[in-house]
Design goal:
Length: about 180
């Protein structure tokens, strides 16, 4: 299970700049037609770097390319994988923003839930905050990653959370990203 997670929507050479152990890459492209050649190129780069690779919202494709798992975004409420059989380390990751969505992801069979937004950011003025985040995670026997507004100024606050690690987009794709302890 990855401790860190980032998202991409196309092949990008910057994947090579990520030198973080125990990271997973989620390919999520909701706007273009699926390009199998590009996805396989991303998967190969992930394999070279030792990253886990997940496909968003497409179980058939995830199984076809032998990905490490699937990512179910919060808007996916239809795919139920709880009683399905997959390879041993196949991970089902879900995304949630509130109690109802966490409950839904657990019902769908997710092994890991990305809960967001933790902190306010330029893109998002709403945030759960430390206390609400912890309240939401305490009643579920499932692993969580935090997402949203994580930066140099608040990264140490993550130690106050009931999480396995965190997810981000810009945090992991910056060349001058801060060191992770």
């Amino acid at each position: 299970m990855p401790k860190y997670l980032t998202y991409i929507d196309k092949y990008d050479e910057n994947i090579s700049n990520i030198n973080i152990p125990n990271i997973g890459i989620v390919y999520r492209n909701y706007f273009k037609k699926t390009n199998l050649k590009e996805i396989l190129k991303i998967k190969l780069k992930c394999k070279e770097k030792g990253f886990k690779f997940y496909i968003s919202n497409n179980l058939k494709l995830s199984l076809k390319i032998n990905a490490d798992g699937i990512y179910l975004p919060s808007f996916n409420t239809k795919m139920f994988l709880k009683n399905k059989t997959f390879k041993k380390d196949f991970l089902i990751i879900g995304s949630a923003h509130n109690y109802r969505e966490i409950f839904e992801k657990k019902k769908q069979g997710c092994n890991l839930i990305i809960l967001s937004p933790l902190f306010k950011s330029k893109k998002n003025n709403k945030a759960l905050g430390i206390n609400n985040f912890n309240k939401l995670t305490q009643n579920f026997n499932i692993k969580f990653l935090a997402l949203g507004g994580i930066n140099n100024n608040n990264i140490k606050k993550l130690k106050m959370l009931n999480i396995e690690g965190f997810a981000g987009i810009s945090y992991f794709q910056k060349k001058n990203r801060p060191k992770i302890n």
